[in-house]
Amino acid sequence: MVVDVDAVLEDAGLKNEKVREYVRYWAGVSGPDRIEVVSAEDDERLIAECLAAGEIQPAGDELYFSRSYFKDTARSEERTIVATSNPDDEGVYNRWRPAAEMKAKLTGLMTGASAGKTMYVVPYLMAPPGSPLEKYAAGVQLTDNRGVVLHLIRMSRVGTQYVDGLEDPDVFVRAVHVTGDLENLGQGTPEDKRYFVTVADERTILHFGSSYGGNALLGKIAHGLRQASYDGWASGVFLAEQFLLLAITDKETGQRYHIAGGFPSASGKTNLAMTLAPDALGDRYHVEFYGDDITWMWVGPDGRLYGMNPEFGVFGVAKDTNEATNPTAMDSIAPGTRSIFTNVAYNSKTHEVWWEGRTPEPPADLDGWLDWKGEPIADRPADQAGDPWAHPNSRFTTTLANVPNLAGDYADPRGVPIDAIIFGGRTRDREPLIRAITDVAEGVYDGLTLGAEATFAADGLDGQLRYDPMSMRPFMSYPEGAYAAHWLTLLGQTTDKPIFAHVNWFGRGADGHFLWPGYRENLRALLWLMQLREGTVTGVPTPVGIVPAADELNLDGLALEPGDLDRLLTIDTDRWRQEMGFREEHLAQFPGLPEEIWAVHRRITGELGD
Ligand code: GTP
Ligand code: SPV
Ligand code: MN
Fold it and tell me: Ligand 1 site: residues with CB under 6 angstroms?
């Protein structure tokens, strides 16, 4: 069927001729039956259409449930590629391939693959309007999946106005998503047909073979992280990182601090960004949310490092989200918020949703309950009785505006000045609760050597320990040596430098229990960091940073098990010496790593002794 692309775009008031050219070209490739231009105002109608078609189900008052294909429930790192025309762009983690080869491959896969479907044209902006980084933020996603459109409307600013007023009409990211025949793509086999490609030097994203999360919502990770980090490096102007962004206000002194932080996927960014002060400290401290997954950072006119969240929503891990761990998240997905739950357990009769950790025990009455694959829980054979009801990477999607502690200035185009940058992963041993780092090169070194136990957010890697530089390993778009140099250059331009810290909420005792209660209590470590920056505490110096003295941490209202605090604040020198050997191998993979980074490594190794 031949669609009159120009007539559709004309009708929709989409005037940008470069956008039209792009839509025409890819419609010619994938061959949809219909084309529709989407604005945020279309949400209600699209929801109704998805409900009518059974693509989503009702999950309470203005809440929705969706299930993705059971082999399509997480990002696939092996199938993700960064392509350019310059072989020097190959890094250790970006799975670089030649642009020409990948464009030909994807064009082949996409040819005719949207036949019988509607192609949605979704113009978007990954920035608050008016941002100094706005020109890197405009994009147009094409997708043949209506459910994906619902997610895009929640996760990014969507509307034709974002591409019609462009300073240069040609400067927007071309983001093409074709779902493909999910049941015949050989996911996870040697015949895997999926390809998730960012052609970074052409600002073109071509994703084929998924309708899930970071594989399909191209503004988020493909543009917001891979493309943007490449643009930030190529322009020399900014950094785009998988970081949360929050503010802490001390109501007594009126001081306000902004903290950005990189934790690998499924390691607590959403939880920390949405955190409320623990009850005992709530009268004095207030935490505000800016972002939970992506922060773009640049040097402001006053010489400080500024940051903003380019996203418009939250795509958060459902597991263990409840009133105690994350009350703010629970509010942001309450009735009336138009949230979408994906791959959680669903009750087809009562329309309730449930996931592991939502309540201590699953619902007692199994009637109507389906697990994330859609199988009735009541019919489970005995040997599957203990299987999770929800997929471990099941998620909720909601807009920022639903987050009750969203900062009033979250969309201020000037961004916010960053006082501290923290790194943290899931580490059972070695890492103390917090260690502060005052030197920029040492902070960058710490980010580059961030290590974590792998999580369910990426297929097939659960349980393995791996390095995840700055939490960007799955999103790295250019060589790691150049990445480190770019960080040092930008931070070198700042006059008032952020303090760095490494945090770990996941330390375990010998019997496996968490040493630290985590969640809302994590604020206590950050308060210490801010005091250290102010100079009101001094901490205890160690070869790997400054740790709190036991009496410097505010533990009001918190009962820790005896001995646990000691372990949380102690550096295990033997484990650290062993770690330095691993780090040496890790860093040696990266050609062109700046000498300043190696100097930090040698200094720490020397101080740890042998
Ligand atoms: P992505 O969205 O994948 O990038 O992940 P994220 O870093 O935003 O992870 P998120 O905050 O959603 O946390 C993932 C999991 O970690 C959830 O199951 C949380 O319940 C758990 N978690 C978060 N914070 C803590 C903590 O302080 N302690 C413990 N023990 N678990 C935590
Ligand atoms: C992550 O995996 O780090 C996410 C979710 O934030 S996704 O959008 O699926 O990449
Ligand atoms: Mn993430």
Answer: 263, 265-271, 292-293, 316-317, 319-320, 325, 457, 505-506, 514, 518-519, 522
Q: Count CB neighbours of 210 within 10 A.
A: 30
Q: Please give the pLDDT value at position 454.
A: 57
SS3 content of the chain, % helix, strand, coil (to 5): 30, 25, 45
CA-based angle 339:342:345, to the nearest 5? 110
Tokens at residue 477, please?
């778009």
Q: Give the C-alpha separation, 463 to 197, whole Å.
A: 27
Q: Which of 155, 295, 315, 317 to mutate to test the pocket of ligand 1 (most atoms within 8 A of CB)?
A: 317
Interatomic CA distance for residues 32 and 179, integer angstroms: 12
Q: How far apart are CA 238 and CA 296, in angstroms?
A: 7
Instruction: Please write the tens of the pLDDT for every residue from 186-205.
Output: 999 999 999 999 999 999 99
Asked if the model's pLDDT at residue 370 lies above 80, the reply is yes
Q: Both tokens of residue 208?
A: 């084929």
The pLDDT, as a whole number, for residue 266 is: 84
Q: Of 98, 95, 100, 64, which Cα lies nearest the Cα of 79?
A: 95
> For residue 462, what pLDDT is reported?
42
**Least confident span in 131-145, 408-422, 451-465, 513-527:** 451-465
Ligand 2 site residues (CB inside 6 A) read 75, 213-214, 220-221, 265, 293, 315, 457
Q: Which atom of ligand 2 is nearest to the CA of 220?
A: 8
Instruction: Taking residues 410-431, report their average pLDDT.
Output: 95
Cβ neighbors of 560 (< 8 A, separation 6 or more) are 515, 516, 517, 568
Q: Tell me if 171 sits within 8 A of 162, measured CB to CB.
A: no
Q: Alpha-carbon distance 345 to 353, whole Å?
A: 6
pLDDT band at 457 (very low <50, low <70, confident <90, very high): low
Tens of pLDDT along 222-266? Answer: 999 999 999 999 999 999 999 999 999 999 999 999 999 999 988
pLDDT band, very low/low/confident/very high, at 463 (cuts 50, 70, 90) = very low
> How far, in Å, from the CA of 214 to the mean position of ligand 2?
5
**Reported pTM:** 0.97
- For residues 208 and 106, what is the distance between their CA atoms, to the nearest angstrom? 7
Tokens 């896969």 belong to residue:
109
Residue 148: which of 232, 209, 58 has the closest Cα?
Answer: 209
Whose alpha carbon is nearest atom 13 of ligand 1? 268
C-alpha 65 – ligand 1 centre gap (Å): 21
Q: Could you identify the residue written with the tokens 């390095």?
A: 467
Q: What is the DSSP string of 212-234?
A: SHHHH-TIIIIIIIIIHHHHHHH
